[in-house]
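TL;DR need structure tokens for one chain.
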Amino acid sequence: MEEFARTCSLILIVLDVMKPLQHKKLIEYELEGFGIRLNKQPPNIAFKKKEKGGLNLTTLVPQSELDVDTVKTILAEYKIHNADITLRYDATAEDLIDVIEGNRVYCPCIYVLNKIDQISVEELDIIYKIPHCVPISAHHKWNFDDLLEKMWLYLNLIRVQMVQLNVLRYTKPKGQLPDYASPIVLKNDAKSVDDLCMKIHKTLQKDFKCALVWGSSAKHNPQRVGKDHILGDEDVVQVIKKI
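>> reply
TL;DR here they are.
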């Protein structure tokens, strides 16, 4: 489980809605032991070991837990006596340990609470307010749409539709509607038109002339754009090649 969990992009933990907290704590404890942090961002702490000079601790905001003596004690456990550390927020000792060890994995997680057909509407309203949770009924196939939408959100992906793409086997006749059932999926941190071209075929980058974009990222429909244009979710794109 450890190796798989450390390499995945999203973790789904399926729990029985009748006793979710008991199972949730057990699973979280196991994952924490493997160095996997659920629904957390990496600590905003700068840490650099050095040959000499002792400890140089810089705090950009007041600290409620970490002071010079505490930091020195933690570093001594790792036989580190010379380091530059910058705390950019009110950090904990656990945050500093995570940075020092440097092998933590930060992964988004959705808690899927199953068997909602066995609880009342009032209980369901309470569950909906719990962060990172999606209630479902696998037996009745209830609320699968909400789960799918949250998965898209947590994976940080966008969907792009293509029309009239004249390259290799991707050619589509002019005027054809985009295939909304089979979008091209891009990561949210790599969603430029150039990233889209690379996703389709590397030669398209060299032959690229311009693109027409319809959707949320366009100032008007269609908008003529270059490779650096940032696409939005469910945009429609037409790539035009050099002649």
